[in-house]
Specification:
The chain is an alpha+beta fold. About 30% of the residues lie in helices and about 30% in strands. The chain has one domain: FAD/NAD(P)-binding domain (3-Layer(bba) Sandwich). β9 and β10 form a beta hairpin. Bound molecules: flavin-adenine dinucleotide. Flavin-adenine dinucleotide binds next to α1, β2, β12, β16 and α5.
């Protein structure tokens, strides 16, 4: 239960439903995430998300093997925020709880059983909770979508290594950095926080991790840090892999569990927040009897997100297979009209 789950819980609680949030972890921890997010996500929330925002991007610096720099101004009309994931998730959850959602943690879901009219959700310790509907929001490692015929049959995984660093090094506040060329089939990024930065290396096609440590050995000194600095976390990220049902009988999947993350840019926060909002609306219509099932959730997510992902997948296949060509044609051209092309 995190970004996508908290978003769903907030919207369901707001619509007057009884919600129980189940979270495996005892407390919030640093999450592997760049934290880059278009400010347009504010449209889905009636409360201010800015308390979770560490910085607002005004400039994007691109490089190819730490050379051939391209600088793009980010226009104020389409703000791009950098958040600390743990702070964003805590804020969403706090708002859901304020509207009556119940949080159970630690509660590690070990089994889901669909009975005639309800679900039995069983914890690792054997505790059982009954529910009318289940929202799968347990991220990229979730076994349940495949089990219940939701999401892609073949999972497409991006491999990532992220580093949380204290201090800014050479990165200026308000500046995001993207490095192509050092990373085979992917890219590296550095996003500014308040007194820190998130650095990451992502490989998006091929299913093989690039030598991310070797990339960091070159990138971190370029950013003004020692190559061994920072807290490192490896994560496999489930990315979009085709139009698929996101619902089943009395069950939906949101966020990474639904494979919604952009396969080109690893943008997963926006679809997590959006899917939470859309899933809650669909569950509400079904629970109050205006819809016979949850299929309108799949339809809405295809309209609002999936159709643009089909392009993301195609772009990823081209740019990450021929990365120098991708940099020259894709990135340089995108930088010319930055706000339209990056998230
Ligand atoms: C290195 C990296 C960098 C990224 N950078 C960006 C970025 O800059 N911008 C962007 O938009 N996206 C980014 N993403 C993607 C984004 O972080 C994810 O798409 C998004 O956070 C997904 O949220 P979620 O709530 O679906 O899943 P998660 O955040 O993974 O939440 C799943 C939750 O479920 C809990 N859980 C798991 N199993 C169980 C269980 N059995 N029982 C109970 N609880 C369970 C977990 O503890 C966790 O709290 C990045 C991802 C990575 C890995």
């Amino acid at each position: 239960m995190c970004t996508a789950g908290s978003s769903t819980a907030f919207h369901l609680a707001r619509l007057g439903h009884r919600v129980t949030v189940l979270e495996r972890e005892r407390s919030e921890r640093i999450k592997p995430c760049g934290g880059g997010m278009a400010a347009s996500v504010q449209q889905w929330f009636p409360f201010d998300l800015k308390p979770a925002v560490d910085d607002v991007i005004q400039q994007v610096d691109f490089s190819w093997c730490l050379t051939d720099p391209v600088v793009a101004e980010f226009p104020g009309s389409a703000p791009f925020w950098i958040v600390k994931r743990e702070r964003l998730d805590a804020l969403l959850l706090e708002q859901a709880i304020a509207l009556g959602a119940d949080l159970r943690r630690p509660f590690e879901v070990a089994d889901l059983e669909r009975e005639e009219n309800h679900w039995l959700v069983r914890s690792k310790e054997g505790e059982v909770i009954e529910a009318k509907a289940v929202v799968l929001a347990d991220g990229s490692g979730s076994p349940w979508p495949t089990h219940f015929g939701i999401g892609p049959r073949t999972l497409h995984m991006a491999k990532t290594l992220s580093v949380r660093l204290e201090g800014m090094g050479t990165l200026q506040p308000g500046t995001a950095r993207f490095e192509f060329g050092l990373v085979h089939h992917g890219f590296a990024w550095a996003f500014p926080l308040q007194n820190g930065i998130n650095v990451g290396v992502g490989t998006f096609i091929g299913g093989q991790a690039s030598d991310a440590e070797a990339v960091l050995e070159q990138l971190l000194p370029d950013l003004g840090f020692s190559s061994t600095d920072g807290l490192r976390q490896n994560a496999d990220l489930r990315v979009w892999n085709g139009h698929t049902p996101l619902h089943g009988k009395r069950i939906v999947a949101v966020g990474d569990a639904a494979s919604l993350c952009d396969p080109f840019l690893a943008e997963g926060l926006r679809p997590s927040l959006m899917s939470g909002c859309e899933a809650a609306a669909s569950l509400d219509s079904w629970l109050n009897g205006t819809q016979p099932d949850l299929s309108n959730y799949t339809v809405r997510m295809r309209e609002c997100w999936g159709d643009s992902m089909a392009w993301g997948l195609r772009i990823a296949q081209v740019c990450y297979r021929f990365t120098n060509v991708g940099y020259q044609l894709g990135i340089k051209r995108a930088a010319a009209h930055c706000s339209n092309s990056l998230w």
